[in-house]
Amino acid sequence: MAKLKWDHLVHYVNNLDKPVELFEEHGLAAFKGGAHKAWGTYNTLSYFGLTYIEFLGIENLELAKATEHNVVVRDAVKALPEHEILSRVVLRTDDIEEVAASLKLAGLSLSPIIDGRRLDHEGRLIEWRMLTIDGDFQGLVYPFIIQWSGNDEERLERLSASGVIRPHPSGHAEIVNAVFRVSNPAAAAEHWGELFQLPVIKSHSGSATLKIGDKSFDFVQGDENQFKQVIIETDSTKLQGKTLRIGEGEYIFV
To answer: For residue 234, which of 175, 182, 178 has the smallest C-alpha distance?
Structure first.
């Protein structure tokens, strides 16, 4: 299967301004992304290199309710407004057809490959291809898969030149870990590892870790079966040791 990288994460929120304000108060760059007009959702973004945070809200509830195939939007309708949760991680590929074929062979129920598009805050059209995975493993929802146009080097150069990827005023910061609280960490890590061809680098009775590039997914003991925390490495002494809480999600700076 084509190699996968951690592209971004999705965090459902009711008010897109609040995470921007909180991040800016702590010297972190965040900004309005744009609207997914066909799905009734919109977002704000914060980039840490090519890996970024997407705060996703519902702009048009009727459109969101009517959206077919896109489980990310369907789950947003179910979760909001009561639960502002970390939804899922998103994996990037350069061959989405190959990934789809591999996941189908594994017996998963997939959406069709969807052509996604939105207008950014300056009216520029952003396009991608994606597929979502229905269901869950022991209650933990699956990532979705995305493919952008161009390779990583081209995208990094383009997004930096346009100001989408920008320095954080507080200093260097990099997303390094996603933490999932699950009832059976070893089984969840093994299952995801087999599906997405990610190595298990450590496994203990109460935790297990998957390596994805220079980052990792940590599965720890808990009853929630949910994505709960994002670990961000920083050289900012003002941020180190802080935890920013947005709804039910936590951003921990180390």
So the answer is: 175
- 31, 12, 16, 30: which is closest to 88 by C-alpha? 12
- Long-range contacts for 125-131 (Cβ within 8 Å, ≥24 apart)? 126/34, 129/96, 130/96, 131/96, 131/99, 131/100
Domain 5-253 has CATH 3.10.180.10: yes
Please say whether the beta carbons of 187 and 210 come within 8 A: no
- Average pLDDT (72-89) is 98
pLDDT tens readout for residues 126-161: 889 999 999 999 999 999 999 998 899 999 998 999
| Of 70, 69, 155, nearest in space to 56 by CA | 70
Enumerate residues 6+ apart whose C-beta is below 8 A from 141: 71, 75, 87, 88, 135
pTM of the model: 0.96
HSE of 158, CA atoms in CB hemisphere, 13 A: 9
**219-248 tens-digit pLDDT:** 999 999 999 999 999 999 999 999 999 999
Residue 246, CA distances (Å) to 23, 32, 81 in order? 10, 17, 13
Question: Domain extents for the chain?
Answer: 5-253
CA 217 to CA 209: how far, in whole Å? 6
